[in-house]
## 1
Amino acid sequence: MERWARIKTTVLDVVGDTPMVWLQRVGTPGGARIALKLESFNPGGSIKDRIALALIQDAAHSGRLLPGGTIVEATAGNTGIALAMAAAVLGYRSIFVVPDKMSPEKVGILKAYGAEVRVVADKPRSDPDNYQNIARKLAQSLPGGCYMGQFERQANPEAHFLSTGPEIWKDTGGNVAAVIAGAGTGGTITGIARYLKSQDATIQVIGADPEGSILSGGSYHPFKIEGMGEDYIPETLDIGLVDRWIPVSDDDAFAMARRLAREEGILAGGSTGAMVVVAQMVAQELSSDQLVVAVAPDTGRNYLNSIFSETP
Ligand code: PMP
């Protein structure tokens, strides 16, 4: 009915078109201005809502996921939440394999959406008991099981090429000097870079990387920042599109997440803290009439018992 035309069909119709907000206090005096793209405005609370429907449609169209089937995925949380939400809307069962460093808040949210959760020890990918390897085997052993494969399916970066990248371009009028993102699967940074560089090849795309991840050139060791940093290069990351990677320590990222809440009123996660640390460094290299956009992948509500229970 025409008079109810603005009411959306399901929550999946309100994914994307997230706002960008200037940082007012956490800035770099004399340097470029910094705006944060707040992905917590998505209905599932993170940037991963953008890839959930794309992964499901890809699996359904290729015949890997049948009606009434079971979605299985390896996730540090947010992809699981996004898939669990979409599974609830579309009528699929869902099971998620998560590393034990994942916050209890995220496990609770998965269960709230009706998903099953298997928590496993956080192991490198070369280990057969790594969460991705366990999830793949679980999907094979389950009748109707389908491994969603966010680390290999090109539907992941493509979702960001089709939405996140164009939104940044549109909301800045193309006047953006640098974009900061992280890489878990690399879908976000790859899709954004592919789109923005197709519009203007001079836009810099810079990766914020947890210390301990190999992307910024160091050797692997475990770190506490959730959702990004890698011990290998996933198929969904086109490393050639990233101009450079800057490492950030857990402590610096978490301290920045706390500052964002207290000084900007922006309650975001640890990966957002890392993006902003890098955004400050990059802003220093640019002038005050330029813009740095940093992606804020999720909400601090996921980390009340960790990042926000520490008092410094
Ligand atoms: N930060 C957080 C909190 C995340 O959940 C993710 C997704 N894994 C990322 C950053 C990185 O996004 P991507 O997988 O698209 O590289």
Note: Residues 46, 48, 76, 78, 182-189, 226-228, 269, 271, 297-298 surround 4'-deoxy-4'-aminopyridoxal-5'-phosphate (CB under 6 Å).
## 2
Amino acid sequence: MTSTQVAIIGGGPAGLLLARLLQLSGIDCMLLEKRSRAYVLSRIRAGLLEQGTVDLLKDVGCGERLQREAMFHHGCDFVYFGETLRVPLTDLTGKVVTIYGQTEVTRDLMDAHAGAGTPCHYETDVVRIDDVTGDRPRVVYVQDGREHTLSCDWVAGCDGYHGVARQSIPTDTLRTFERVYPFGWLGILADVPPCSHELIYANHRDGFALATMRSATRTRAYIQVPNDARLDDWSDDRFWDEYKRRLGPAAANVVTGPSIEKSIAPLRSFVAEPMRYGRLLLAGDAAHIVPPTGAKGLNLAVADVRRLGEALDSFYRTKSPALIDAYSDAALARVWKAVRFSWSLTRLMHLFPDMDGFDRAIQRSEFDYLKGSRAAQTALAENYVGLPYV
Ligand code: APR
Ligand code: PHB
């Protein structure tokens, strides 16, 4: 039986970053990722980083390419039925947001691990966790068709929404909270210049659209589609036409081109409590999902992992479990704020199929209030750029 101090399940951004933090603290860990390295790198996700996320990536030695290639934004646009409001994020909060694809964050973390002694094992499928309430839990995994066991002090469940970690918490202990939205986002990536130098969130009679980017030559664009939408029904031409119709004034600057990626993501809010059970600690999508409106998913995973890394570091340095004991409640306090923010931005900027005149009037008045109130814009900006770590 192999043995380590911390077994990390999942090699998405949460698992990779935790492994990096633990290595820098001199804590022995082993990361088990079901998929191949290439598969993990092929997943296209959001691309907006809070200042706290960027600072931590720099601290762990993953800031060099980011500093060179990322774009730094000082505001973003909200368009409501053709009317534009620019929220001056930096003027209101003193912070910037960083545009840098999550795929690039993943690649930088993988590269940082690539030297001798990488703790990451790919194509390694964790099937169950045994004795999670004992002193030495065991992670059982399959590699090359053979079953193996890893014994450890702590298990970090960084295995995403569909992983096994959360499922190891008994149903009479686990509480889940969920909102499934009646639409998804159809997103494309194309090698055409962005239509604006900042992001544009648009609410239109026919639904939401978002103009974002990966670089000065690569556009990421999304539109709201019904939950039963099929990719095959969305040619590039149909996508661009619909996107331009919804985007408002910036549509005139849209340059179209062939998509290099196209996918549909459903929207949901989900929280699992507690984030710790015995010697199992959950982080990232394994414990919570937010809709992409506001791009909190990765940033929230990073905030969890930062706290978890500190708690484990303190445990091994001082032998006190105090920070580990505090982990779940402290992490959940931030999680619920991000869940609330992304839910409220989703409500403000989308067409809900069951909306009546009253709902529309409330939505419009929320936009009008935002437009007229520096206080309301500050509240939005504070959440958008990322709440301070406490
Ligand atoms: N054994 C090993 N690995 C597993 C298992 C398993 N049984 N089940 C899932 N995994 C792996 C997945 O293959 C995936 O690579 O866990 C990883 C979880 O990664 P993400 O889904 O990216 O979740 P997380 O790291 O929490 O990322 C948080 O980044 O990926 C985005 O949408 C995500 O924005 C969110 C943020
Ligand atoms: C992205 O760049 O993919 C992105 C940006 C902001 C969001 C969601 C996605 O709110």
Note: The chain has a mean pLDDT of 97.
